Amino acid sequence: xxxxxxxxxxxxxxxxxxxxxxxxxxxxxxxxxxxxxxxxxxxxxxxxxxxxxxxxxxxxxxxxxxxxxxxxxxxxxxxxxxxxxxxxxxxxxxxxxxxxxxxxxxxxxxxxxxxxxxxxxxxxxxxxxxxxxxxxxxxxxxxxxxxxxxxxxxxxxxxxxxxxxxxxxxxxxxxxxxxxxxxxxxxxxxxxxxxxxxxxxxxxxxxxxxxxxxxxxxxxxxxxxxxx
Length: 228
Ligand SMILES: [Zn+2]
Fold this sequence. Notes:
By secondary structure, this protein is an alpha+beta fold. It contains 8 helices and 7 strands; from the N terminus they run βββββββαααααααα. The protein has helices at residues 78-81, 83-99, 111-119, 128-148, 157-169, 175-187, 191-204, 209-219, and strands spanning 2-10, 17-24, 31-33, 39-41, 50-52, 59-61, 66-71.
């Protein structure tokens, strides 16, 4: 991933503006994949999924906020191969940057603030898919502290409730959801259940590197997050 444009977005509730550093997608030699599916880059922080408004305190997904403007923060190779486009983009960068000079960078909410938001959502049928996406994000967001220092971490009761809610929401046969069930059960140190869940995944797909790794972690009875 390379640094993408700086986005100017507005709070869904009070319309106050905030800045967001985005990453362009693509291959990155420094990207690291974790056992819970989170991808982190060694040089760039993961783009935040949730925001907390610094004016009204609203917490919600950034994907639900409107994009007001954006400018390039990194020109890289194309500054050399396309000088005229570089000229116009860098002019735009200067003028947009000035216009939004006083706008603050996005504030990340705490794990519990994210969970409060997710718990407050309606559990109507059409919201189920969104609820799962948000709960998975909240789980990985909470896991970020473990990636830094697993020895001094503990999960709050809210986080454990969230993990059980994911297990409830993924109680079907799709493989890509079953693998998160294995990981969550293992992180909760429910190794027998994790092993049983893993056997269902193996029936669906054999000789898979990720599933082999899970089998080893479960047999070693380790609940730690692992780099793949
Ligand atoms: Zn606001």
